[in-house]
Description:
By secondary structure, the chain is of the alpha/beta class.
Amino acid sequence: MKSSHKKGVFIGFLILGLLIMTGIISYILYYSVTNEKTAVKPNETTKPQNISKQENSKPKDNEPKQDVKTNVLLSFAGDSTIGHDTNFGFANSLPAVLQKNGNDYSYFFKNVLPIFKNDDLSIVNLETTFTNSNSRKAKQFNFKADPEYGKSLTLGSVEAVNISNNHIYDYNKEGFDDTVNTLKSNNVGFFGEGYKYTKDINGGKFGFLGYTGFYADETFLKKLKSDIKAFKDEGRIVIINFHWGAENMYYPVESQTFIAHTAIDNGADLIIGHHPHVVQGIEQYKGKIIAYSLGNFCFGGNFNPKDKDTFILQVKYNLINGVPQSYEVKAIPCSISSVNYINDYCPTPAQGSEKTRILNKLNNISQSFGFSISDEFKIIK
Length: 381
């Protein structure tokens, strides 16, 4: 009986052992198969789940891109004769006033510096030479200054100048070359007399041209049209400075209007004029602005001109993807001097009743063109 009982117990333990062993073998086989499926192979890398979500959120190639909207603010001012005629008396001359102000070359543009510093590009007509040459051209007035005076432009935040005018060769080719080299050494851009100036600003592409435009002959007009086309082919906004017209005349002569209209008819976008030494009116022609004369500005050619009125023309281009969609203009009335009894060669923004008077004067002489301007931006359509 005992033997039979022992045999039953042994069989029970044997069956239990077989069951346990079967379970262990089954677990080992299952783990091996599962691990082989999920194991990372030597040449593979895992990707976190959140990366695949980011990839799915990327814009597709055919989705429209966001337009880039920018604007460009340009400032233009008139005749800047930063020098004098050595045949003039020294007293009250531009060099004498500089000397009284400690030979500080920042003096000349100090009162308009806040305006010029806060735009994208400031341009004046440089109506002098920077040279020590004594080779005077035979003419009534010859203007020059030591090349050191060139730094006044940089200190005044004037980034570019027109050099096409009736005084740039006052000291012949030597004086011209000295002037160009002075501008280069001071990193001031220049255009006119065969030179062109290009500048890309905030996505906009600009091209500047300068000419002495007293006569509208065929050779001149052919050159003008060719230069405009070259810039337009590059996709540039074309801005032209013309030195033209009759001195001390408040209205443009026929040749000015003809040249300006011809330039715009052939693709010019903005016309800036100077030479008359007084302001002239503003015309809007085919949606483009013609400022016939900005007058004098930092003008060392006369120690006390009767008419000291001038203005800074500001033009703001509104761009989408670098292409102008619209533009705005305003005038900042100024005097060529900070005092009214003499020319101290320090152009200064007008205030109060003087500002109003200069604006009214500018609008009165623009009436024949049906155009008006203020010291607030006006959209040109």
